[in-house]
Amino acid sequence: MDDQQFGQLLNRFGFSWKGYRKVRKGVKKRVNRHMKELGCRNMAAYLAELDKEDEARQHCELLLTVSISRFFRDREFWVTLEKKLLPELIGKKRTRIKAWSGGCACGDEVYSFKIVWDCLQKSFAYVPELEVIATDMNPAYIDRARAGIYSSSSLKEVKEEFQSIYFKRKAGKKLYEVKASLGRDISWKIHHLLSDPPGSDFDIIFLRNNVLTYYEDRLKGEAFKKVLNSLAPNGLLIIGSHEELPFETADLTGVAPHSFVFRKATKQ
Predict the structure, then answer these.
(1) Second CATH level (architecture) for the domain 75-264
(2) If residue 211 lies in a helix (H) or strand (E), which one and from where to where?
(3) Which of 6, 10, 190, 255 could be joined to 15 by an S-S link, Cβ 3.0–4.6 Å?
(4) Are 107 and 183 in contact (CB under 8 A)?
């Protein structure tokens, strides 16, 4: 499968060549295996099969999903979240804080958030209840996130003291399992980011390195409008550090010092 053929496949799903350019090698391998399983010798035959069989098309879309993450990715952001952004929310004395991790992959980001939240619980006399919804379209990723088992490379930015507090090393293996307490208050759900959000009035939405990277402009714009509508007034939106908003909007204001963190305007 050459790049032109791969581009044809991406176009069929509304995916962006630019987003897949650096990760296409591994994705191509997965798709090639699927083509062989279906007996398709070329891309034209494969596309015809996807048009004919919904199950094959759905499986192909899952093969095109990319899971590249680690705990505390963009470490300085997590410091800002712990020291400034979350204390501001907690200071409002609300009864509950709602967070959504959209396209959560294998859960590294969600558990990172729960570690920060647990640290704040130890520092504040009062913290609101926390409700976290973590979603991904790939059921295999959700299963791995629920299991909470990670390689040592995923934990390279986790402080050593946190590794002993929040993780348990698997005997005889370079694998770490998150402590059961981190899984509390997390609802893991299968969800496609092009569909309606899994709730509304979220105080925090993580939309990092997924829809804004991998989808073509038209689809990412439509999906982003839905996400923005589900964010509560004064809520925080966090996108990938190398991503950009799909369109300009007065509803969002950048939150220094990070160019990828935004606050939604309050209602007039």
Answers:
(1) 3-Layer(aba) Sandwich (3.40)
(2) helix 211-214
(3) 10
(4) no
